[in-house]
Amino acid sequence: MRQSHPLTPAALALVALVPAAAAQQVQQVRQLTLAEAVQRALEVQPAVVEARGTVSNAGWQKRAAYGAFLPSLTLGSSAFRQNSPSIVNGLSATAGTYQYSSSLSLSLDLFTGFRRLARYRNAAATEDAADAGLVNQRYQVTVATQQAFFTALADEDLVRVAEAQVQRAKEELQISVNKFLAGAATRSDTLTSTVDLGTAQLTLLQARANLATAQANLARQAGIDGPVQAVPDSQRPALPDTTGLRAAAVAGAPVVVQADAQARAASAAVWDARSQYLPTVTAGFSTSSQGLTEPWSGFDAGNRNLNQFRIGLSWTLFNGFQREQTAAQNVASADLARAQAADTRRQLDAQLTQQVAALFTAYTQIGITGANVAAATEARRVQQERYRLGAATLLDLLIAEANLTQAAVNQVQARYNYLNARAQLEALVGRSL
Fold first, then answer.
1. Domain ranges of the chain
2. Which end of the chain, C or N, has fewer beta carbons within 10 A?
3. Pick from 195, 59, 30: which is nearest to 124 by CA?
4. What is the spatial distance between Cα 342 and Cα 23, in angstroms, rounded to a whole number?
5. Which CATH class is domain 9-15+28-70+112-279+320-429?
6. 3-state secondary structure of 286
7. Which tens digit of pLDDT belongs to each residue from 81-126?
8. Nearest-5° angle of CA 34, CA 35, CA 37?
9. Chain centroid, CA 95 distance in Å
10. Which helix (H) or strand (E) holds 42?
11. Distance CA 181, CA 195 (A)
12. Which of 66, 88, 67, 90 is nearest to 78 (CA)?
């Protein structure tokens, strides 16, 4: 008479738990390539939008600094009506007559103690800093998007690893059951296999939860409502050539360019403050007409016409040490900006060493973990066959199974560690490798 199956109802329910949970989580998701994700992120991420606004503001600041070298023009016109006869500005006006007043004035700073030149240099350096800041922010958003994309891919691969682990645990459970029915194994083996299966299913549930979280984070980064699925590239990018990378990065990385421009802007602000010690010379010209003739009809001899040309000089000799305070503050800011620029270069050099080492380490780990997976797969197959034949214990098989699972996880992590290290290196140097 055939013996009953030794699995308990709870164990059977555990076997069906993961597929049922997976069915509840199935939903339509949008597929997204890395290029699409980066493009959308660069359009919607607030950091990039803010950086573009900073560039626009800096551009108008430079135009305004250039406009300070140009004359200012002012045009004015007015009209009024008297309800009784009167004499206004020497002109007799009857009741109900309109009088008109028109003026045109021009003013130009001839000398401002080189203030305009200093402000123009400050504005030009500020614009350079804003441009470099935008480039840097684009690469920072790019690397953040790539990391979110690679995390989603890695979690998807880890789900497949967990599914394979569950499938192998089921096979182990079936082997232990068959051996128990044949009298070649104890009930402890079936119970241990049941626990191992449950552990694998819990790992799979967590892996699917991690995948859902990663897909949601990727959707937010790309500005998409609802979950998305990352579409992997068909080829892994090759190891980049890092020859001359350090010198090029220290000289032209966006963070370095931005820091240098900020230092130049601070130095220009020092000269702006020092211009207050020199006099200011201005020139102006104005013409005006008042009378009974409308401005659009021309100005006849009956109007009161007045032309003026003015030259003025102003020189602040003492203002309660306010100039000295401003100059001292600007000098301190310039010293700080130069120190920060030098420190930015040193920091970049240190980060470059770290990222290059991480890149080559991750690339080497890909080959090592691939060999480990192949070896662990064969070791698990051998132990499974030995356990089936009674030459090994269930513990030997479980150890081989754990080694295979860990090797597969390490392989996934190594593959995406390389991609992340490459992306971070590109963001650091500010160009594609």
1. 9-15+28-70+112-279+320-429, 74-110+280-314
2. N
3. 59
4. 57
5. mainly alpha
6. strand
7. 777 776 666 666 666 677 788 889 999 999 988 999 999 999 999 9
8. 65
9. 71
10. helix 34-44
11. 19
12. 88
